[in-house]
Amino acid sequence: MSTRIYNFSAGPAMLPTQVMEKAQEEFCNYHGVGNGIMELSHRGPQFTEVIKRAEDNIRELLNISDEYAVIFVQGGASMQFSMIPMNLMLPNGFSEYADTGTWAAKAMKEAKLFGEVKNIATSKETNYDRIPVIRHWKPTQGSSYCHITSNNTVAGTQYHSFPEKMADVPLIADMSSDIMSRVLDINEFGMIYAGAQKNIGPSGVALVIMRKDLAKRTPANVPTMLRYSTYIDKGSMFNTPPTFAIYMIALITDWLKEKGGLKVIEEINDMKSEVLYELIDKTGFFHCPVEPGSRSKMNVVFRLPTEELEAKFVKEAEIGGMLGLKGHRLVGGIRASIYNAMPMKGVEQLIDFMNEFERVNG
Amino acid sequence: MSTRIYNFSAGPAMLPTQVMEKAQEEFCNYHGVGNGIMELSHRGPQFTEVIKRAEDNIRELLNISDEYAVIFVQGGASMQFSMIPMNLMLPNGFSEYADTGTWAAKAMKEAKLFGEVKNIATSKETNYDRIPVIRHWKPTQGSSYCHITSNNTVAGTQYHSFPEKMADVPLIADMSSDIMSRVLDINEFGMIYAGAQKNIGPSGVALVIMRKDLAKRTPANVPTMLRYSTYIDKGSMFNTPPTFAIYMIALITDWLKEKGGLKVIEEINDMKSEVLYELIDKTGFFHCPVEPGSRSKMNVVFRLPTEELEAKFVKEAEIGGMLGLKGHRLVGGIRASIYNAMPMKGVEQLIDFMNEFERVNG
Predict the structure, then answer these.
(1) Residue A117 forms beta bridges with which residues?
(2) Burial code of B221-256, b = ≥16 C-beta within 10 A, e = fewer?
(3) How far, in Å, CA of B199 to CA of B256, rounded?
(4) For the residues B219-248, what does the mean pLDDT come to?
(5) Bridging pattern class, strands B116-122 and B94-99
């Protein structure tokens, strides 16, 4: 694809070129129907097949049992920050959150509207440069749930192991920025969720996978559209779902299956991040502020000697066809987001550019 | 467009062919950037321009003053059914709803979770075959707000005038199925809202236009993503918005402006519906169950002598390239949804088919 460039944006992010081209091809005329999938009724045969395929693909890729529901909800991960305590906080109960970054803190803040919230582990005092050592903390018996953020997009950290499973305390993970990037045992979790716009689709839909029994906790006064049971009972079709976004998830999970599933994708993601961190660590020019054992394989953050050089780096990378490398506005620096759709070739191009940039400016 | 067909679905519904073709053309490479708009950061220059253009177009088309906010919210109109009472019900107050159909009743049901709800006018006892005569009812002084459903998609009814404006009682209208189909004085309303997937875009986004002062009513315990002020203060970008859906709204409102605005669209919509109702009324074969003064210009519902003939009608229409004519599952019959994007030619083709069907089966 001569016209396509490498987009290292943290999300919305680049999607697989093969998927984009397929969606483009059938955009105005889905499977010969004479209208695009976006224009067809969500209750018609075409979309009924699409949403079933999206769910089936997700179940197959993550090996999800019938004990769990797979649903599509609007409002992004931020809406989940509210829905989780609204539905799952036990009466007069408390919940626990690990505060590992901007989004983890936002999730915790919302929960405080619905009951007591305990900050069970944090790395705030070291600027969120690490995941607090897992063996030093665990959920408390009696907690409504324990919430973690598996990958922290802003700080560039990621859990490489998870807190031990504790009976009666469901572990809930916001996996917005690393969903389907690696093999996962869903049975270790009560619920995982993810805004789609990084690894599995466009913005406008969140994937929620939850143990069905948890949906029974919801108090009677929670509105229809904010109850998990509404989505579970109606197959995410109580009202019109975001059909095109779900269609894109179906195509992207088709692509993931064709690639060989999550084990293969994980190996590619390991390679992509390893070569980047290797380059960063071997020079005195680039510097990664994240503690080595907590580094994210999705969002590789690093600094250059000065902010002026960072600005120059971002600008020259753009000219070279590499977009979105500017770090999050809260922390500055450089961030290379290398989700599933970023091919090894994109990372190689970035590495060549980094080497050349250091040679000229180092 | 030889491959495009006429889709009379109630929504998601057909979008203007010109818009679909433009979106297809730049799907993988937006304005030469090398990625699709769907893949680009919502904080980047491309989407920043898109969301501004969508808002500017809407303000221009509906002649909206600065006193009103224009925001994009996920969850469809159904989420608004909850957000409205959650944000706008006055402390220990009550609200009023006109029950004119399935969706109006759903909106009313949700409000009961947040306070007293009065059913101010209804046509339920006549199977929602009409809008209750406007001069027979008006909002009560002291009501938190008065909620109406301007067009009833299932029953095929529409308000052709609105209840008189009453100071202190904001009129709120669900305009999901007739937004931007006709000229409207926004100043008569405290708030209007619409799921996009009928007249102005794909599913996955709702347009909300509200008087800014109303957003100050929200109680402190309402979660961030459910507060109107979150969307107003952050330009609908507190978190990642449904970027592609908003992009489609920008394109469709561009198209509406090119067509000449809402006055021109209204004239076309008037013609489209008039020719259909004229045909229905002149025969004993077709029959419209809706009281003449309340008939919808968006959803033309009618019956045939038997259910068998109705099934045959739907099937043969499909073969003739006219999709989505089956009535809503709750009421049966035939429903021709003729939103803005349905051209006069589509209606003419339907009329030819109806005449021929009556000739053969009448």
Answers:
(1) A95
(2) ebbbbbbbbbbbeebbbbbbbbbbbbbbbbbbbbbb
(3) 10
(4) 97
(5) parallel
Q: pLDDT tens across B56-108, in order?
A: 999 999 999 999 999 999 999 999 999 999 999 999 999 999 999 999 999 99
Distance (Å) from the alpha carbon of B164 to chain A's nearest alpha carbon: 30
What structural domains does chain B harbor? 19-259 (3.40.640.10), 262-361 (3.90.1150.10)
Measured between CA atoms, how close is B226 to chain A, in angstroms?
A: 8
Looking at residues B202-207, what average pLDDT do you find? 98
B138 with B163: CB under 8 angstroms? yes
User: Model confidence at B1, in pLDDT bands (50, 70, 90)?
Assistant: very low
Residues of chain A with pLDDT under 70: 1-2
Find the closest chain A residue to B246 by CA distance.
A204
Residue A206 tokens read as 């969140």
Give which of B22, B39, B112, B342 to mutate to test A binding, by max A Cβ within 10 Å.
B39
CB contact under 8 A, A78 and B33: no
Find out whether A154 and A330 touch, Cβ atoms under 8 Å: yes
Instruction: Please indicate whether residue A174 is annotated as part of the active site.
Output: yes
Beta partners for residue B268, in sequence order: none
Q: Which residue has 């990958």 as its token pair?
A: A151
**Which residues neighbour B54 within 8 Å (Cβ) at sequence distance 6 or greater?**
B72, B246, B247, B249, B250, B253
Verify whether residue A315 is a known catalytic residue. no
Catalytic site includes residue A103: yes
Q: For residue range B146-184, what is the model confidence (pLDDT) as tens digits?
A: 999 999 999 999 999 999 888 899 999 999 999 999 999
pTM of the model: 0.98
Using CA atoms, how far apart are residues B260 and A99, in angstroms rounded to an integer? 53
Helix/strand/coil percent split, chain A, to 5:
40, 15, 40
